[in-house]
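Hi! If you just cloned this repository, the fastest way to understand the data is to look at a raw example. We've pasted two of them here, unedited. The first protein comes first, obviously.
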Amino acid sequence: MPLVSPTVDTLRAAVDRSVGGAADRSWLRLRESTGPAVDLADAAHRRAALVWLNAWGCRLRYPRPGEEDVFGTGLARWWARHHPLLPAARTPLAALPETALPALVSAFADLAAMPVTPGPRRRTLGPTAASKLLYAVRPAALPPWDDAIARALHGCRDADAYGAHLRLTRSWALRLLAEAGTDEVAFTTALGHPGRTLAKMLDDYCYQVHTRGFRHQPA
């Protein structure tokens, strides 16, 4: 499929189709249980993140009684290593600096390769769940993806493709804001969804177009 950049109209239509669904409801539950921001140094937040990932279709096994919590332990180690290098919590996608991208690509690669189950044949988190967790901890700056989005836009789901996805969606955000002549808060409010980040709106667009095959027909 050729690359089609979002316009204000196609973005609004995609977001309108996405708002209020099961994904939004599970996101609200995550935010209610983790306060203003997800802090993966907190065991309760790591558990809430696992529940949320499964609500978003990741199908990660919960540890059985007496079993090692491989997911929780690995996530705590990942957070301790990469948290200091993440953008500030309020940094929007359009303001994500190029200098931040190498650290984000490294964080994504380590997270995707993180084991999540015990035993000799351990399952890793994988690239889709890794992108979703990065979105959970930095929802203003880091849009998630799924397999269909990654392959349609970048041909694969590796770390380099994740970096390319950040650059692409950032370029979309910058163009949309420049055309509107406003900031993100005013832009998302004008589209009728105040409080929804532009990073999430662009994910809504990618999901509707590349995963669901939505084609907007202007009125």
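Ok, and the second one:
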Amino acid sequence: MPQLNPFPHEGDGGLGPPASAKGWHQGYIAAVSSPSGLPRTPSARSTEFMDAFELGAAAGRADGLAEGWRWRYFGEDVRTGRETGQGPQPARSPVEPVDSGEDGPAGPTYPLAWHCVGTAALRVVLEQFAPGSDREFPGLRLDRVCADKGVGRLYLPVRLLPRDPPAEPAGDPLGDQGFWHGTTTDSFADAVAAEGPDGPHPLVTRAPTFLGLVRYRPAGEHDFWDVLPADGRMPPTSD
């Protein structure tokens, strides 16, 4: 089982999560996607943040070694939580994909899943599935909302567009990186049939642009999700 944040998530007086909780969370994400070694501890005004980051990084590294590494697919700096605008990162996943486990008529079209970690995709899912929710720890909020609603899986259609990301960010964590995304649904079939940026039935296209699904399954407090590419093919990326 993945280790959990030992620091309280709730701050006093509506000020948001304490620095220690945020530090541990970001350290964990950084390390569970970094098989090459422990990530560098960022410089911050808060020593509580830095100390907790190191503890979270140690926990993330232990979980990565024991349970498998996670891929930070969408460009994101885990030390700040800000989107980098650099698209998919890193260029290659640190682990091999697994069977997606999806069935039905569209199951064979999405045969593989890569385990991922990060907040960019989950912020979009959370905003659509539970508007107005606290976005500090989207995985934690989604886990709680899914439990309340009795939902076991959520899907978000995504596509890497064949053009540069917008010059001016518009506040969409995926759109600002050059991705189209559809609407979150708890139905695999509905997500596959979603109308894409090029019209209905996007699977018909053979354009060299990535098409896939972000799949969220409740994972406690962690920002875990899977990416399921159409036909099991990830997009071309550069090192």
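That's it. A detail worth noticing about the second one: The beta strands are 74-77, 82-88, 98-99, 112-117, 154-160, 179-181, 211-216, 224-229.
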